[in-house]
Amino acid sequence: MAIDSWTSEGxxxxxxxxxxxxxxxxxxxxxxxxxxxAIVPGSTLPVYWLNIPGGRAGLMVRTTFVxxxxxxxxxxxxxxxxxVRSGNYIDYEDNGGNWDDVxxxxxxxxxxWPTMLASIGDSEWIRATQDTIVTEAWALQMYRILNKLVWxxxxxxxxxxxxxxxxxxxxxADAVASFAADTWHDSPGYANDNYHFARRQVGVYSIxxxxxxxxxGPFTPEVNHKLDLYFYYQKETFLGNIDVxxxxxxPSANVDKWHLQEQVLVPTSVASHSYWVGNFNNxxxxxxxxxxxxxxxTTRAQGTSEANWPYSVVKWNVTGxxxxxxxxx
Length: 329
Prior knowledge:
By secondary structure, the protein is of the alpha+beta class. The protein has 2 domains: 11-149, no CATH class; 155-315, no CATH class. Helix content is 21%, strand content 25%. It has 6 helices and 11 strands. Strands 1, 2, 3, 4, 5, 6, 7, 8, 9, 10 and 11 form an 11-stranded mixed β-sheet that branches. Strand 4 and strand 5 (204-216) form a beta hairpin. Helix 1 packs parallel to helix 5. The two termini are 27 Å apart.
């Protein structure tokens, strides 16, 4: 019987006392491979990893865990340490797994060994080093850790696509009508330059909106996953004096914070997901006073810092996603 989940061959992870060695360690190896491939696309663990020490025939009847030979445990420790500290897998327990309306420095945090051990209720990492007798405690700890490594953060890449939509008029009503009648059209400029502002000058009102196309993915392994897309909205300042631009697009005054822009389930057949930032069409806006510009912008590509770059949370613990998970979302 193929091992393709934590419960294959009747495995029960509540206790491993007097259980056969083989399926449990094999499941841990396959789960490790699944998670490693997800952050290093196209990679696989060495073939010898699938050859559990002692061979399958002997392990089928073992009821004790024995030392990993030939450096197997050292290699396991190295891969696990890199998974936990890689800066890829994130702590989905932080803030209930939702980072909408949080400050710049409070977005989805990565796992660290202290937060991981606190989450699983252990005080130390049980290493599978060479010549160590591997215990039930080790296997159960690995099971708990690997189940935590199911959400990943990844930056959004940008396309060169850029579109604008605008309106202008002698009165505010004229500008609103002009904007409502306009449609999105290609425009040269910065694909990262996404904003919306309304401006009043002597004798003229204008409304201008720009959106850019951002791509997320592709991801490996090519299995089902959910995406939570986050964008950082900030008060726009590049045009001078400005107030917060509040309308139906952005009903709260929570600028300079991350906002959950979209949640989408991506099936296996979809290699990547593309999203237009600023993809709003309503025209419910507030008339600005003379000389005032009301507006917002999301993640302008200014300077070299990527601290406020759009990012996605990729969730593999979904139906049709990772095979070795203890819960789905």
